[in-house]
Design goal:
- The structure is a single chain.
- This protein folds into two domains: about 90 residues; about 60 residues, Orthogonal Bundle (Arc Repressor Mutant, subunit A).
- It is built from eight helices and three strands, in the order H-H-H-H-H-H-E-H-H-E-E.
- The protein has a three-stranded antiparallel beta sheet with strand order 1-3-2.
- The longest helix is centred in the middle third of the chain and has 35 residues.
Length: about 170
């Protein structure tokens, strides 16, 4: 199947390969390997990275199962393509959300001293979805108490709801 789709663009190759994997049921108890094959094809064409597999899976989940497993091949291929489109749309929405969160945090940096640790904390929060006081303290080279104070100053939302171990993130 891959040889037949060799002349197609990489995204279509991945769609055809995923459909073939699902239809042939190569490994009945491992349908996820088909999605890995699909991601591998896209990675070889330098279209995506290893981190895009999650996005592809989430995009495919938005498409109803009856369309993805339809008897008509064209319907299945279109469903997989719509799953890729949904994944791209979700990625763009997430990017916009993170860009807005970064702007909101950077507004709090105005008028700060040049020795302030807040810019470093903004970079850490943008790089990691969830940060703990220990992580902040180690990265910024401050005490855990100072880390909690800096986090509160930035206005991050507490995600754990626990007193002993706290973790924050930007929403």
């Amino acid at each position: 199947m891959l040889r037949q789709a060799q002349d197609l663009p990489a995204v279509l190759q991945a769609i055809v390969a995923l459909d073939a994997w699902n239809e042939l049921s190569v490994l009945q108890h491992a349908p996820w390997l088909g999605r890995l094959l699909c991601a591998s094809i896209l990675r070889q064409a330098r279209i995506t990275t290893g981190a895009h597999l999650v996005a592809i899976n989430l995009g495919l989940k938005t498409i109803p199962v009856d369309q993805r497993r339809h008897r008509d091949r064209q319907t299945r291929l279109l469903a997989i393509a719509h799953g890729f489109i949904a994944a791209a749309e979700m990625g763009l929405k997430e990017h916009d959300r993170l860009a807005l969160a970064r702007k909101m945090m950077e507004r709090k940096l105005d008028g700060r001293r040049t020795s302030s640790k807040l810019p470093e904390l903004v970079e850490l929060v943008m790089a990691k979805p969830l940060v703990s006081a220990g992580m902040v303290a180690k990265t910024l080279d401050v005490t855990p108490q100072a880390a909690r104070r800096i986090v509160l100053e930035l206005g991050l939302r507490e995600m754990t709801g626990r007193g002993r171990f706290r973790a924050w993130g930007s929403l």
